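Example 4.3 (complexes with small molecules)
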Amino acid sequence: MKTWREECGVFGVWNHEQAGRLTYLGLYAMQHRGQESAGIVALHQNQHLQHKGLGLVADVFKEADLDRLLGESAIGHVRYSTTGENRLANAQPLAAQLFSGPVALAHNGNLVNSHILRKQLQEQGSIFQGTNDTECVLHLISRTPTSDIIEAMKLVLPQLEGAFSFTILTHDRLLAVRDPFGFRPLVLGKKKNDRGEDSYIVASETCAFDLVGAQLVREIEPGEMIEINKEGIRSYFFQKKVQSAPCVFEHVYFSRPDSIVFGQSVYEARKSFGKWLAKEFPTEADIVIPVPDSGVPAAIGYSAESKIPFEFGIIRNHYVGRTFIQPHQSIRNFGVKIKLNPQTAILSGKRVIVVDDSLVRGTTSKKIIGLIRQAGAKEVHMRIASPPTIGPCFYGVDTPQKSQLIAANQSLAEIRDHIGADSLAYLSIEGMLASLKESQKPTHRTYCSACFDGKYPTRVE
Ligand code: AMP
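Answer. The structure with adenosine monophosphate bound is encoded below.
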């Protein structure tokens, strides 16, 4: 099956004089969720104004572009896809002029039945511009026998399978929708506009609220659709069966550590993973070092639990993009070298525990351990603050197919030898879930951890 794996961030503003600029800031804060394209659609005098482009938020939007995005409501999107389909037609928000008026849609997640929907729609005469799954949703909305967007969504949403957190802008309202599993995060916030009125903000992550000065109101619930218009805010549940399965990998790697995701601090969750890892796999060593930046909170937790001193043994050059994000293997390999510099003064002659958040193909760990050894470390013990990654994600995280997942194909000892470590240990699935419960006092959730346990909450072919 051809999958359209997309890591994305979505944003929305209702009733603020600086809607376009707030959206720009929100996307800026969520740049880690996607670096290939960015876009904003604003609502001005019942019509949509849009600006989209390939590249980083700061490159796509110039001052003049933001000046043109007039209006008091807007939605925005940052996108990364792995399929090579990095073209402008796939950049979101996707906007269309329907019979009922303009509709624009920003999607984080991945629809597992999009190939079926697309085929049916094309057979019925729909014309597609791009190759992403999100375009199906616009076609489905357009085909409903109603011009009321709420009624249309009630008909469309039950047809969608998989992961979706949407922000949708029409000529007179903003919608925020989360699939019944709640795979991807989506939060509602509030801030005052210049007239002292409430404006509503929707974002994938709360770090976007921090930058725009909004307060977190609450999470949008799995299976919930929120409608915001000039009368205020209303909530609908479009499917009775809700089976909460938020993505555990948001806590492991994907979200920013300064966000509250699924009701819980990502930083605290990662620290807790590190503590559990130290409890499950204690090792004698002189220092604990993180793979920066993704392993930092877990290494702090590991160090706190084990009482082994924490050091920044590797210094990261922050002006290089994330290695994984480069589509070609040759560039990825180059990326690790250019990005991370081990400090000989810290590492030489030491027994080192290296903590990273995850091990996917094994490329990063192998390079890093090589660099640490070159810097004179006596022993290198690799500790991974999540379980072995054994399955691809069909819900919007760029995990490669099974053949490239080292833990799906090799034993622990083989992986240890491949990466060149003296020892290797992963946090157990039980440890990961227990540490989430421990660091999240009020509610106990069930998560989607399909990439670690192979249990997919939906059909995936
Ligand atoms: P690998 O080299 O394939 O083993 O990748 C592992 C490294 O990539 C770890 O340092 C992770 O922090 C990072 N990583 C894991 N998953 C992803 C992802 N979906 N997107 C980008 N980076 C990732």
